[in-house]
Amino acid sequence: MTGTVLVAGVGNIFLRDDGFGVEVANRLATRPMPEGVRVVDFGIRGLHLAYELLDGYDALVLVDAMPMGEPPGTVAIVEPEIDVGGSDVVAVDAHGMDPATVLATLSGLGGSVGRVLVVACEPADLDEGIGLSSTVAGAIDHAVDAVESLLAGICSAAENRSRS
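Above: the chain sequence. Below: its structure as tokens.
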């Protein structure tokens, strides 16, 4: 699958706003995507995400709730510098892997991903319960637009490189 982009919605729908990434992925799955883009709701299946990335993706767009010290509902695009360290990472809890652990596990499995971007939303409520807070639910459309804008840029840059 070289030359592709994976959009991965992650989070736990049983912890209120932690389900943000799942909701955005589900919304994106109903919309047309550029060729080579795959949208998947991974939820809490971090180990599954690491194995999926072994297929070879040029870019990964993670969508997740992420405390950033901003007002709840704030959507931001983050390009993290993730140090995956050595390849000795072992996934002890396959349902509780954060993105850095997923990428470290991927590295330990011999894989890599070209570019990682996170579309993050500041949560308001991470208590047990189902359903997003109204503030975070109100940020879904903004996040969908942000992902689509990122994809347009990534796909355009890839197309320009292939023409060179």
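The two ends are 21 Å apart (CA to CA).
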